[in-house]
Amino acid sequence: MNIATAAVIVTSPDRNFVTLKLTTDDGLVGWGDATLNGRELSVASYLNDHVVPLLIGRDAHRIEDTWQFLYRSAYWRRGPVTMAAIAAVDVALWDLKAKAAGMPLYQLLGGASRNGLMAYGHASGRDQEELFDSIRRHLEQGFRSIRVQTSVPGIDAVYGVRAPVGEVPEHHYEPALRAAQPMEEDWDTRAYLRHIPKVFEAVRSEFGPELPLLHDVHHRLTPIQAARLGKDLEPYDLFWMEDCTPAENQDALRLVRQHTTTPLAIGEVFNTVWDYQTLIKDQLIDYVRSAVTHTGGITAMRKLLDYAAQYQIKSGIHGPTDISPVGMAAGLHLDLAIHNFGIQEYMQHGDATNEVFRQSFTFDNGYLHPGNEPGLGVELDEEAAAKHPYQPAYLPYNRLKDGTVHDW
Ligand code: GCO
Ligand code: MG
């Protein structure tokens, strides 16, 4: 089973996606996701210019060898562009191997360790009424755990709340705006720290103690501010507090950890196990937030999650709409197979995306399942994809009141 052709497909139904298609000499097709929000074309170029030519004629069964070859032979290691490109090749090879075996991928990874994957959805609102409505809608859809984001009095535009111009439906919240420039938002840490505990108090008293609640801080706090928020949220029993500091500095989490028992999740912007080295070894976190797509694929994620498992740290695989259905499916197969599954983020793609990517994964009564088709269970429809050419789109960024650029 040698690789005969490799093609990079860029398509923009709802948003931009970069997909790698590998075809073998015996006619099997494998898919990999290489989408890097706001920097999509860099990964497409990395693949087209530097990876595709190396793949032709290679034995598609040699997944570990191909991973090591792409990682080590580049000399320049790590980084989101490189690791997304390697991930796309790796996931496409796993898709091929599972198709060749006639099995859903999770079987090759050791088989199912559970019946389904508890997923959390994103509830948000500009005020309490809107937020409560959004939580109720998610409960009606079957979600059994919910991320809560809200507006903050004194801040005009906050992460995770309003759909940017173009008003996509609320449950399809998409932070990247189709425009030539990133949108500017504002930020006020003191206003945020005052407001969020009140929101969780209200949500708990309306929806009771059982419902797992999550919150994403999106890298905006210093360690001592994050420590305070974690402490203030303790009475509301969060499932996790996510990305509380930028975390390039892993030791920052030590300070947060010393002050609070609120569980900590981190890592959607990380791309190798090294970004977690101290965090895992010193047990400074509870959940690993990486995406298969941004962390070198299934081969690397499996090692990372096995390492985390030795420290009772669980998975919380990143699943926003900027992970394509191919990347989502890769995460779901891994989630089903590993022992230390925690929770799966599920933002739900829009109709146009679902027409381009035919999927076998299901969401039933709050639980995701990757399905039982051979391989990943996702096939890209190239004709449908061709109808949606690339459109420049960027994530927003924010500035403090005095104009200083802040973390997004
Ligand atoms: C999440 C994330 C996303 C990111 C987006 C960036 O927890 O799902 O924070 O909403 O902002 O994936 O590309
Ligand atoms: Mg996040």
From TrEMBL:
Stored SUPFAM superfamilies: Enolase C-terminal domain-like (SSF51604), Enolase N-terminal domain-like (SSF54826)
Domain Mandelate racemase/muconate lactonizing enzyme C-terminal, first and last residues per copy: 128-263
Domain of life: Bacteria
Coiled coil region boundaries: none
Span of the signal peptide: none
Entries under Pfam families matching the protein: MR_MLE_C, MR_MLE_N
NCBIfam families per the UniProt record, alphabetical: ManoateDhtManD, PRK15072.1
Annotated protein name in UniProt: D-galactonate dehydratase family protein
